[in-house]
């Protein structure tokens, strides 16, 4: 019962955080799992998807993000430096780094993202 409640709260929290970003961008987030680890942090795994021609919107995370590209192509821009990503590539983004994704091509850009973030802060914060 407690696990179901925690899973429900996790889904709600991830959806809210993703929803806040989605309102100003074209990102869709689907939560998969949340683990309270390491101490003081939470590890969140989810699928993030941006449609062709779209962007994720400039934002930061209160911890690291790492991921694996499942499909599509995009430019990952981390603090002004651009890295082109395609299916099969992996990436990492340091704590607090301002970043964005700009999708190229005619397919959605879909990643399996893993966030290890400070559990007292929101998953993502929009950046100017």
TrEMBL record:
Identify the stretch annotated as signal peptide in this record.
1-22
Q: Name one Pfam family in it.
A: Cupin_2
Q: What InterPro entries is this protein classified in? A: Cupin_2, RmlC-like_jellyroll, RmlC_Cupin_sf
Q: Which domain of life is it from?
A: Bacteria
> Cupin type-2 domain spans which residues?
47-115
Q: Which terms are listed as keywords in the entry?
A: Signal
Q: What is this protein called?
A: Cupin domain-containing protein
